[in-house]
Design goal:
- With 190 residues, this protein is mainly α.
- The protein is 69% helix and 0% strand.
- The chain has 2 domains: 44 residues, Homeodomain-like (Arc Repressor Mutant, subunit A, Orthogonal Bundle); 126 residues, Tetracycline Repressor, domain 2 (Orthogonal Bundle), CATH 1.10.357.
- The protein contains 10 helices and no strands.
- Helix 5 runs antiparallel to helix 6 and helix 6 packs antiparallel against helix 7.
- It starts with 9 loop residues before the first helix and ends with a helix.
- 22% of the residues are buried.
């Protein structure tokens, strides 16, 4: 008689699948992942995966380290006069705490158009916030949407260069915060 493993609550199973995927991405590219690998690492049956996701790429937005409380929501809860500080501090903390993992997810998006598409959907809100900020700047760019895309790419590249190797220190955090704050102060200066 075969023994059936105990049923895992749906929320716990989903968390285990995402955690297993994050762990695996630190050691191999997204393209090398299989549902079987993920589920073995999660300690769950392969069929459980398909109760939560149709395909691996669909997980991308939930793999973001701030998916439970998105940085955008955190920033928007800040008083208007502290919005830039909240954004910069949040970005630096997010990348400093998760640099290696975010680099792996960035590489996954570069290599897999389906992952890139899923992540792009998750970043609509942050892009809109940046677009609104630059459109309302004292000297707005001719095309705020394109400028917002440029800023997002700049933030991502700089923060991945700074923290993507898993190197973190109070000095790196201070320097990154100062650099991004200076950028935003100049963009919003009268």
């Amino acid at each position: 008689m075969s023994q059936r493993s105990p049923r895992v609550p749906s929320d716990d199973a989903r968390r285990r699948i995402l955690d297993a995927t994050r762990e695996l991405l630190l050691d191999r590219p997204f393209a090398a992942l299989t549902v079987g690998d993920v589920m073995t690492r999660a300690g769950l049956a392969r069929t459980v995966f398909y109760r939560h996701f149709d395909r691996l790429a669909q997980m991308a937005p939930e793999l973001l380290p701030d998916s439970e409380d998105p940085l955008l929501d955190q920033v928007l809860r800040a008083p208007a006069e502290d919005l830039i500080t909240a954004m910069v501090t949040g970005l630096v903390q997010l990348y400093a705490d998760n640099g290696r993992w975010l680099r792996a997810l960035d590489a996954a998006a570069a290599a897999d158009p389906a992952v890139a598409t899923e992540l792009d959907r998750a970043l609509v809100g942050p892009r809109q916030l940046l677009e609104q900020l630059v459109a309302n700047a004292p000297h707005p760019p001719a095309n705020p949407r394109e400028f917002a895309l440029l800023l997002m790419a700049t933030h991502r590249a700089y923060l991945l260069d700074t923290f993507g190797g898993g190197h973190d220190s109070p000095e790196r955090r201070t320097n990154a915060t100062a650099a991004l704050t200076a950028l935003w102060e100049r963009l919003l200066a009268e």
